[in-house]
Write a structure and sequence with these properties.
alpha+beta, three-stranded antiparallel sheet, binds succinic acid
Length: 303
């Protein structure tokens, strides 16, 4: 008698939970859940950081995918200065646009103010940020500058290495080598009703469905429900079915996820390739404001 391969997620979780963990000399790293996420202590982001601190943060994000820095009384300039240690700052096409806010005109900061009159909040579907770019940003760093009076407004994150590794071997082989189209119109026009500036178009790009992380060599699923429109090598019906399965696979496995609770003066830094995230809008009609800086490396994840 044969059985469904429903144990694969446990094997993937076992491999992940028993991986070799790095040691840190200068920063303190305390995981917040087995799947992903760690709080980083013993660091003040207002100060100049040493090469060892920067290398250890890079190590910590490779290992934990999402880093939470508490009690960091930093402003927008310090936020950007910290992000620049890890790559070039990305300029979001909607930064400073009225789709989100009239508050920031800085093209390197995507700022939003969600409140009673908002029709949507940024990132309310599971997604990788701006995966429609030809070279999708590697990391994002977010501060929530106004917390809702009701509490709530967490950000949920999912580990896409685990999502890939939990699939059966024949299904992994089927996905390896496929490519999917990610389209800014899907995320921003369908999602928010946003239009590109006159004479410009939102980007659309094709990326591997299964990508390899250049830092760790580990594979991950790289499709998301906000931007991915179709898998290029399949019929429409096949593509719709497979994408629906993959989105649901990522969303329903709570064991692959964590939730970050925002406190005043928190900064969250995530690997935008190997994770998806989703803003939880459970605080209506209260206000929640965010400022996001993203880091671009001049290349995307590898095939
Ligand atoms: C986002 O960056 O997509 C928004 C996340 C959040 O506001 O929690």
């Amino acid at each position: 008698m044969s059985f469904y391969q429903d144990y694969n997620d446990k094997l993937a979780i076992e491999q992940w939970n028993t991986r070799a963990r790095p040691e840190y000399k200068e920063i303190r790293v305390r995981p917040i859940s087995p799947a992903l996420g760690a709080e980083v202590g013993n660091i003040d982001l207002r100060e100049d950081l040493s090469p060892v601190q920067i290398a250890e943060i890079r190590q910590a994000i490779e290992d934990n995918l999402v880093l939470v820095f508490r009690d960091q009384k930093i402003d927008a300039e310090a936020h950007k200065r910290f992000a620049r240690h890890f790559g070039t700052l990305h300029r979001h096409l909607l930064a400073g646009s009225r789709e989100f806010t009239e508050r920031s005109e800085d093209p390197e900061i995507l700022a939003w103010q969600t409140g009673r009159s908002s029709r949507y909040t940024a990132g309310e579907a599971w997604h990788n940020d701006v995966s429609c770019d030809a070279n999708p940003i590697w990391a994002s760093l977010l501060r929530v500058t106004r917390l809702p009076d009701s509490g709530g407004g967490d950000t949920a994150f999912a580990n896409l290495h685990l999502a890939y590794e939990a699939l059966s071997d024949p299904f992994k082989q089927f996905l390896d080598g496929l490519t999917a189209v990610h389209d800014g119109r899907e995320g921003w026009t369908q999602g928010y009703g946003a239009q590109p500036a006159a004479g410009r178009a939102f980007p659309a790009s094709e990326h591997p469905v299964v990508a390899r992380h250049p830092y760790t060599g580990r594979k991950f699923l790289f499709v998301n429900s906000a931007f991915t429109t179709h898998i290029a090598q399949l019929t429409r019906a096949e593509s719709d079915g497979i994408l629906q399965f993959l989105h649901r696979h990522i969303e329903k496995h709570i064991a692959f996820q964590t939730r970050v609770r925002w406190l005043p003066d928190t900064l969250v830094f995530w690997d935008n390739w190997a994770t998806q995230h989703r803003a939880v809008w459970d605080y209506y009609p209260f206000e929640r404001w965010g400022e996001r800086v993203s880091v671009y490396l001049g290349h995307g994840p590898e095939k």
